[in-house]
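Bit of a strange request maybe. I'm writing a small parser for structure token strings and I need a real example to test against, not something I typed by hand. Could someone generate the tokens for this chain?
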Amino acid sequence: MKAIPTLRLTAVAALLASAAGLGWTVNAALAADAPIYSATVGKVTYATYCSSCHGVDARGAGDIAGTLSKKPTDLTRITAKNDGVFPAERLQAVIDGRVEVAEHGSREMPVWGDLFLWPEDDSPERRSHVERKIGDLVAYLLSVQEPATKR
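Reply from user aminoacidic:
Good idea to test on real output. This should exercise your parser:
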């Protein structure tokens, strides 16, 4: 399985940083054919497939969070919990099932069906579709990260 290149997500980070005026410095050379993922599209995907557990604000308090045996992860703190580094490739692997999260269900039948399941032996079109969906979702998760606070 080919992971979504970090360069593409770095490009998304650069665009988001520029748009938000955060002044982040990102050194990346964009490949001419590298897709740019849409945090806006990812937000719609998130609302459909993730918010019932992780909450509309991605802080882990979704509508069904109280019925779960383990509180869903606060997705706005991913970067903070990883020493200031947004782990895009690991998130891709969690979303597509390569890294199993018990609360998401087994790789064969994740709670969201096969929408994000990496199609190892499927057509290039299917792989491209899954890569796009995951890339957009990861771009959205990057966009909701809280700044690190000193404790």
